[in-house]
Each structure stands twice: as structure tokens, then as C-alpha cells.
Amino acid sequence: MESTTEPGKSVLVQEGHEPAPGENAAENSLEGAVSVPLPLGVGERRQDYRSALEPVWCPGCGDFYVLDSLADALVELRLPRHMVSLVSGIGCSSRIPGYMSTYGFNSIHGRALPIASGLKLARPEITVVVAAGDGDAFSIGGGHLVHAVRRNVDLTLLVMDNGVYGLTKGQVSPTTPLGALTKTTEQGAFDSPVNPLELMLVYGCGFVAQAYSADTRGMTELIIEAMRYPGFSFLNIVSPCPTFRGGMGIYKDLRSQVNRLASSGHDASDYEQAMAVARDGSRIPHGVLYRRTVAGPGLGADAGLAVSDPAALRPPLPTGLHYVSLQEGSAGLERIAALAERYR
User: Which of 200, 219, 319, 341 could form a disulfide with 124 if both were Cys (CB 3.0 to 4.6 A apart)?
Assistant: First the structure.
């Protein structure tokens, strides 16, 4: 359990212990506790956003690339470390908060999105990024996706999609390709896989993109675009698991299938074109499939987002929480109606 204090100070961390109110954790030196700095300010290089923990992923895991690209994106966005929070569920990819020097919450399986939404609504000034795997996002957590999209809370979802349950040692996942051999499909996967890009487009997500993790520069640029988007943004990351799916040769196979949208003339403002790209199973799109033009500022003055008809986009939720008590009766119903009209 982590006991937090003001940014820039140190805290004591020990599993299973939370200091009681008024307890001086430093004086009651807990056996096995470690001092963890919570740094202030903007990092100048990748390592400034990395914690002292060394990743325990398998050799060749695509998530190593994602970790580096995420840190590089924070450097370029010049975000203070204490103003960023990473929220994750359970899985290989969900270890990322522990490897970063920002705030982080390694939560429970499939529930990262509602937890992150609550954080963003309570502290709208915090930049919130959700890290999940394909099982975490599209299986046990799949029911939360549509609600995160329709509420349009201003957070970014990064899904590290390796097409297998890696942490539990190689079972079939929602995105495992048909016919793929896993520990639970020895005769080949027989369920049609989820298409993450098509799913998010159908849900009405305003920003849908995909990256190939081995292209770290391209992935960094896409993470930056997603974080700058003023509303809910989704980036699917094809992040290979050579240990349980394909061996190290999977990188060569995937590289040959990558379709770089930026150089193919793709129009990210065209929904139908985006859907056609998402449904084309012959290539792996790398880039922004769809970006709904919006009214309002992005993160920083150079967000580069075009202004369109405000009515074309349901705006992000208000920065303040609106509480309506059932005891208010008709007055409460009038307040609800007024809020609904305001954010229609």
C-alpha cells in the first residue's frame, strides 16, 4: 500500500501497511519500507519519467518499446511528473505505472477506465492515461468501453494488444487470430477475434489510432496526438509477445504487414474511409484512422486540431462535478434537465 504526500517529498511504501492518521511513517521505520520520491517539475529526458524499478517483462516483449515511447511523449509534451497519472488494470501491460515516476494506480482487472474517469472528473487538471492489455480492455473490461466513449471524459486509453494472455502464460484472448495455437486452443483458435479499431469506431470514439510498437518514433508521435486530443482518445498498440505467440520472428512478420496511413493519402476526418481501413484485414494500419474535428483547445497551443461545427461533437464532461440529490424533488429534476440541455 502506498501512502502519498505532497509532490516533491518522499513517502514510505510497504505492502499491507497504511500509516494511521497522524502516524509519522519516517519515525516508525517499517521493515522492508523504501523511500520513494515524488518529483516535481518537467522531465528533460526519458529517464526523468522512469522510476527506479526495472521491468520484469520477458525478453523481446513489445511493451518495452511502449514504455520508452510513453516517457518520450511526456518529455515532448513537457508535462510535470506530478500532474500526470497512469491508471492500469491487471496484466503484463498494467505494470507500466510502476515503471514511471508519475503518479500511478495499478487497479483491478478490467476496471481501469471507470477508476480513471473518476480521477479525471475529480481532478480535471491532471493528465490521465489508461494502460491496458487486449484481455483487460476487450474481455473483462469490455463493458466499460462504450460508456467511456459516450461520456467522452478527457483521458487517453493505450491498449497493448499482443493477441494472447501473457501474464497467465499464453491463453487465447479476445484478439487472438483465428487458427492461432495457444495453451487453451491446441487445435487453433476458433472464435472470431475482436477488431479493436472497428469496435471503437462503431462506439463513436472521436480519436481512433493504431501503432506498431517496434516503430518507437511513430508510436511516440501517436501517443502525443492522442493525449492532445480534447476528449476520449484510443490508441491500439500492436505489441508482440514473442514468448507465447510467434517467437522473435513475429517482428519481421508484422513489419511486412504495416500500412503507414500518413504516407498513403488516408483522410482521418473521413469516417467511412476510417471504417474501411479498420475492416481491411490484409494490412496492419499504423497511424490515425479517425479524428473528429472539434471546437476547443487541445493540450497546449500547438495542438493543431481543426475547428468544426461544435454540434458535430458531444463535448467533454464539465470540469466540475454536478451533484443532484434525489431529495430535491422537482427542483432536482429541473437541474438535471438544464444540465442535459447545456451538454446536449
Answer: 319
